[in-house]
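Please predict the structure of the following assembly.
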Amino acid sequence: MKRFTITGFLILILSITAWAPAWGNDWTIDANHSTIQFRIKHIFSTVFGYFPDFDGTIHFDPEHLDQSKFDFTVQVKTINTANAKRDTHLRSNDFFAADKYPVMTFTSSKIIHKQDNTYEVSGTMTIKDTAKDMNIPFVFHGTAPSPFDKKQIVAGFDTAFSLDRLAFGVGDGKFFNMGVVGDMVDITISVEALRTP
Amino acid sequence: MEDPRTHPVRKKTGTLVKSAAVALALAGLGTGICVPFFFESQSLYYKFGLDKALLQWGKAAGLAAAVLMVYQIVFVSRFRVLETHFTRKRLWAAHRTCGKFIALLVTLHPLLILGSDGFAFFPLEKRYWPEFTGILLWVLILGIVGVSVFQSKLTLSYRTWQALHRAGVLVAVCLVFIHAGFVSESFVSGFPRAGLFLAAFMAGVLFIRIYTKRLLNK
């Protein structure tokens, strides 16, 4: 009985120790100051858009990258390119089929430090049920006490990368072959996250 | 008084007037239906095959309903020339039949348009207000037609029905021009915009005439 109690106690201690850095670095995304933007070529011009409705969890500690993690979920139907008709078309089966595939997700599996404040997150991007492994570089701007609420700490992350929409089945290549809509989408994500020390 | 429908000379004139009126009405209807085929909005550029046909005919159905709504006002305007050659009874019958056609067309209109996008619905966002105006209009028109068809079964008195009908129709005609003018890029400029303004102006004049006559007859 005593042996079981000691073993149980040790497991509990080990569990708490293992999770402690993650708990201490759980960040809440400040949706008002975070954006997921994209741009794509349309014949000669560039169309800009964004997804206003997204959510995610961030566990990030530069000292414990093995326990750090990013998860993002984007609500596809909220796509906004400042043109209501175009957005309806983008939600249709010609592109996102938003009714059938309402979310896009990214789940990280590994984060490595590259240099200075640059890191790289590896993970799985899932769009329209097509999952692809991606390595995405990002910049961690560090942390600072919130100027508005001293009880909170703010962290900043920025990333820019490109993905091939056709590889995820976002369009069947019809508009690309016509020279109307490009295949590569440039994505910029800027996140401000908060936590209580 | 001679009946223009039986007098030989007047009968010929009557036939001409009737033919001209029907031709004019068909021309107006045809013009409305042709707009999505001759004045393509950008949304049509991105559609092909069946999707394009659905979108074009969906828009055409909506425009045909809008044109018929203006004709509905003509049917009840009690123009002497029309009542002489078509009879008031026939005009009222045409008004009732036309109402049912309008109900059918406004039901087809969203089905075909949404069908062209695989029924991808738009989210509840302020920028889709012309589409929401369309939904409101659809409910209103089906309500007007439904209440008119089932007036007796609904145990509505004639006066109550008439008051509801007149108010509903006035709102519906206003909404149809707001919806058409803002929902499609076809009406941003050129001939379609001029046509829409002309139709709205005609509807306005007809309403003013009807309400003025009612006031004077009180």
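The mean pLDDT of chain B is 90. Residues 8-38 of chain B form the longest helix (31 residues).
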